[in-house]
Amino acid sequence: MSDSLPPVGPSGQIARAFQNAHLTPLLALLGILLGILAVVVTPKEEEPQIDVTMADILVALPGASAQEVENAIATPGEQVMSEIKGVEHVYSVSRHGRAVITVQFEVGIPRQEALVQLYNQVHSNRDWLPPDFGASEPVVKPRGIDDVPIMGLTLYDPANKWSGEDLTRLAHTLEIALKRVPGTRDVDTLGGIPDRVDVRFDPARLNGYNLTVTDLRQALASANTSARNNRITRDGVSIPVQAGTLIDSVEAVRQLVVGMHQGAPVFLDNVANINRGGTVADQSVMIGFGPASERADPGQVHPAVTLAVAKKAGENAIDVTRAIETRLEALRNRAIPEGIEVVISRDYGKTASDKAEKLITDLISATVCVVLLVLAAMGWRQAIIVGVSVLITLLLTLVFSWAWGFTLNRVSLFALIFAIGILVDDGIVITENINRRIRNSRHAVRDIIPVAVDEVGTPTIMASLTIMAALLPMAFVTGLMGPYMSPIPINASAGMVLSQLVAFLVAPWLAMRLLAHQSGADVAREAALSHSAEGVNTTVLGFFHRLLSPFLGDHHWRRRFLGLGVVGLTLAAAALPVFLAVILKMLPFDNKSELQIVVDMPEHTPVETTQQTLLALGEHLETVPEVTNWQAYAGTHSPINFNGLVRQYYLRSAPYLGDLQVNLADKSERGRESHAIAQAMREPLQAIGERFGATVRIVEVPPGPPVQAPVVAEVYGVGPEHRAELARAIEATMHNTPGLVDIDTSLEAPTQQWEVRVDRERAARLGVSQAQVVQTLSTAFGGQGIGYLHGAHAKYPVPVRAILDEGDKAQQAALMSLSVRSRSGERVPLASIADIATVDWPGARYHKDLMPVTYVTADMAGAVDSPLYGMFNLVGRLSQQRAMPDQYFTSLPSVAEKGAIKWDGEWRITYETFRDMGLAYSVGVFLIFLLLVAQFRSYVLPLVIMAPIPLTLIGIMPGHALLGREFTATSMIGMIALAGIIVRNAILLVVFIRQLLEEGVALDEAVVLAGAVRIKPIALTAISAMVGAYFILDDPIFNGLAISLIFGLAVSTLLTIVVVPLLYYSLARVRWL
Questions:
Q1: pLDDT tens digits, residue range 399-414?
Q2: Can you name the CATH fold of 53-143?
Q3: What pTM was computed for the model?
Q4: Could you confirm whether domain 536-574+938-1073 is CATH 1.20.1640.10?
Q5: Residue 639 DSSP one-character state
Q6: Which helix (DSSP H) or strand (DSSP E) does residue 712 occupy?
Q7: Digit-coded pLDDT (tens) for 448-460
């Protein structure tokens, strides 16, 4: 054995340059300070921000049928919008008199760029709406992630002394105060009762004074006019002159002269009852409390309003919500009167803070555990080196994450926890090799360290590149799942690069100061071993001799038998999902503290009945032990979340629509998870809904990207009757499919409407136009105001509207007794020129990507709650029905004259995600192969190194089956990461075997020595990764990642140290290597 040290390559030269440099500790300190700064300045939120840009284009065509709106407005509009580059889907809903066209851009397209294209397309193609057609100008309403409120504040009076109008005025006042909080964006009042003056006229009194509704409108318009654009000069002073005064009080409205009768003025209160407030609301909010509430009035329901507060893009949700709470405290007993309670019905800042604190704590705990592991295995000096290296690496990775634009959220922090095991590997391998080299050499430490670093430098660089090659393709996953999970591959890959740099720069500097005293400590133990295997533990060496010797030499049949056994185990593990021992699912449900109950009444239902239904549902919620409070929204929507944004719940504003926002006790204070609570309440709530004819759906916050519904059947066909027939058949089959719940369709219940038909010929003879009739009836029903009340204290204009009493509205005789004035000035009763017919109300017409469609939706519940199994069970049942058309799974049908069914929902996002992840996995494996071919200049040796990759299945699938967990997208991420980690271990073994062979060691002895020498860094790396994964295990979403890492690493590492040396041995004996 020669006493001279070999020359070093680039890795050793870097270590030599920095091992004694004064700059090294300064760089380390700078990295620590920058990391701490990154933790402070990086915005924190619970979930990643996904750049999803949508926009609704609203167009009105008063009086037109749904079919005319579809043909004349929606279809041409869809054609124009689909021309925009980057548009993924164009949807439309056509209803009587209006259309909503929704443009959904591809994920990742910058919001500003998308909206500029959209506005340009809308305004440069105005000719798709004929100018004299009667359609309104298109109104573009952009939607995005920043429209989701991060905070909900529900105001109510426990004593029920404040009316809905009073609470609404208070909420409008608070809107201004809360908007002054830095970082807030939209502050909206939901469920407010608008402030207005109702002029409830009596048709008989109007006729008695020879007046019409038009006379009231004209009188108010004439009296409510003022001008202040003149000045006079008097005695050298310029004096402004105002002509007329505006109506600013209800009393002024009452005293308004609307006509003359028998020589006397007729005041407005002679023909109408005039009141401000106290009107029948077309929407409402109620708040109730459950058993988990700390309030003293459980079971009591109070009128309320809700303030929804959104934040600006890039703002820290935690800081904004805390500032709002501080502002609320300052406003109590000032702007918020005594006796008014404010319930924080949503606080995403608190959930983000709780999640960030827990994950940062887990990150610190995982790091400490890894350092303690190194301490136990290598000693306290080595533990300090590894601990400092990991700390600097993690902090620098946080700096990179901030610079890349990521926020501190559950995914980015989980990426760091997941990466601890692979980030620590560089430090462990290099520190262990430095320590072993120092202890077994009498050379100067400053000369040994570069050699030790260089010895494992190339293998660790290659190993890091293989992990990056496995992870980085995941960053290109398309759809909503791509940006949601992108912090994992990007942050982990950046951490790998930074870990390698820290191991080359900082670890040698620390080793010079902490390990120098051990120089030559084990020289006396040197035996006839090769230079590279100096210092191997004899006990470990003996173990590997006993483990591998039975398979060496001429015992080729033993090696084959072992190979067949490993292949059989791999196939058996892969078959577990086929036999439902492991369930496949996109993502498991998270344990949230909120639920939503969506209620759809028949389309003819008034808001009062909707409110009664919601209150009946609320009574049951008061019996659920985990419920703290709930808010019932009738005729309007609750504050939307990301799921509601994608499902367009913000458009749910109609008398027959409602929902309940249910808040649960904190998960630390309840035994059941939110998914179990939702499943338990579904049946009793739907039984209550059936009594009122309502469709009740339990909507949980999805754990990942939202979809329209878990199971969606899109029914295509030429005629609406054909589509409706198919939809009803699918709905009926769904009811007979086990596990499918919350079944609904986009078909609307049969409803009738009154249609006032004007005899145009008779009207013309009497000097009356149809427009006068339409305007009179619109005013009478409250659809058109007749003016505004002016005042100094109202935030919003206070409309004055002339309206019939609710009882008169329902009487055809009262409607027909209204009059219009002819050109000659005569009063003409409507009964003389029009009649009322009862006709069917046309339902809404839906389009998707220029094709008419009807939706049938469902959810999945039960022992197997993965929607995929329910959907494919349904597919099989539909395939057995002869009348069913072709079914499509991945693309829209090109031609659908005979009808077609396209499956969407969770199936689509699962298919796209696993397809892209499978491609990413394949690309990663291929990149690993290319790297290995480039490094070893062989086609066979890379296959030896990559052989352990499929062995990970032997741990992953049984691990999921053992713990009763579904194999999810996060499980797949763990499986992809394992490909790189396990190859890293194989590289260390193969490189060392080749190194020993070059030094003249026999093949049999080399494969044994390689395992004995490299078992410590391999085992430490695997256990470190498993320790990091352990802290992810309790997360409902990411536990699949943890299971894959823990069980996959445990099994594949044990197999790798046996399979790789023996496979190398077998191929080397036949001279393939």
A1: 999 999 888 888 888 8
A2: Alpha-Beta Plaits (3.30.70)
A3: 0.85
A4: yes
A5: P
A6: strand 711-716
A7: 888 888 888 888 8
